[in-house]
Amino acid sequence: MSICQTCQTNFTITSNDQLFYDKVKAPLPVQCPQCRLQKRLAYRNERSLFSSICGLCHKNILSLYNPADQFTVYCNDCWWSDKWEPTNYGRAIDWSRSLIEQWNEVRRAVPRLALVSLNSENSDYTNMSSDNKNCYLLFAAENNENCSYGKLVQKCKDCFDCSFIYDSELCYGCVNIRNCYHSIYLQDCQDSRDCGFSIGLRGCSNVWFSANLHNKEYYIANQSVPPAEFQQRVQVLTADAVALKKSYQTWRELNKDRIVKYAHNIKSDGCTGDSLTDCKRIYDSFDVTGGQDCAYMTDALESRDCYDASFIYYKPELVYDSLSMLQCYNVQYSVFTFYTSDSQYCDQVHNSKNIMLSSCLRNKQFVILNKQYSQAEYEVLLPKVIAAMTTVSDYGQLPPAEHSLFAYNDTVAQEYFPLTKQQALAAGYRWNNAADERIHKPFKLTQSESVFYQTMNLPEPTEHPELRHRARMALRNPRQLWQRPCQCTQTNHNHATTCPEVFLTSYSTDRPEQVYCERCYQQTVI
Description:
Distance between the termini: 42 Å
Low-confidence stretches: none
Shape: globular
Structural class: alpha/beta
Largest sheet: 12 strands, mixed
Radius of gyration: 24 Å
């Protein structure tokens, strides 16, 4: 049992944890998993975009960096061009000073990429995204077409105001859905079409105001309804903005005393966490697809042997205490690092290997503090660097919160670990006083958005997109686990009184839902 140096709570380092730390030659963590996650997420700004000017071509651009912080920012074309050289910002190691502080100085000096948006078409207002077409204000999203106002949207078309959705089309206001079509306001649903204001549907069509239905058609309020009557009632429920708001309020009432499965996991037996799909030996993790032998993960795709990592995709392996990675191998304590291997303490490093304490590199090898070395020089210096950092307890974790380049309330951390300004400043984070002003500013509809509302027969929204995003995020469970017993008391479920099953769940003990184990849930809803 260890004590977290940040929050003073006890946390356990398991034998599997120890094996992983030995594999990547990392010291044992000194913070609990929740504090490690909070610090990690404070390094990622997704949604706060600022007007800026490219430091090279001087055109007006959007940037994820606040102009008040005075970073040099380049547009996408300039940053990837050969018009500048990142190693020109390199510096020799000063062994008398903190190496983390020297890295931080390099990070603040070298020109930074304005937005992380790759291989996209007509999708300038997207960030942390790739391979999108005709998308607007989409974040952490890939392979989408004509989608707007979304977070973690994957392989979707014509979807607006949705979060954590996959392989869906013509959907609005949905959260946690897979393979759904022509539906509005769904939560925790899959393989369903022409549905609305429902939770926990699977394989359904034409279902409204219902929960926990599988393979049903023409249902309202969990009751079968003739098709003609169904259409008439749905038209009334969505007649105008007033009716839609009332329907939304009714939808939220469905959660009262609703029976829920302890986790939204699919084909992930023996794992712990929530929203795990096709996983094996994944522990204390959330929103992971195709993962194996990992722990303390969030938002990961096909990860192998990774710990304490978030927003990592495309088969990362041996990644530890890192954030925003694409196809990396054996990379630790790094952020925004793509297609890179055998490196540590990287920040916005691409297509490189054997990198240490460097920032904004492309196609490099054997670099420390952005200074180029020969292989022989690098191999001599690297253990000395690690030893020097270890001596002052700087090695083995992401640097403290004050090294983030973003204000706390501009980062993903504020979504999952909300703080007041006073709390954030006391914890060493920075604060953007203007962050909340944007929700009071007027907003306009794009042409594709107007067409979408007409197609879906929906009234135009009156709330700012950021408020709509916050409302959707509030519907998701926290990324934390509680040990709870199954609450099923149905005696026909192979138990005499209350079910004896105990599990870890993201439903806290003060939630109104009735939380069931897998077996009792399946026997109840099918």
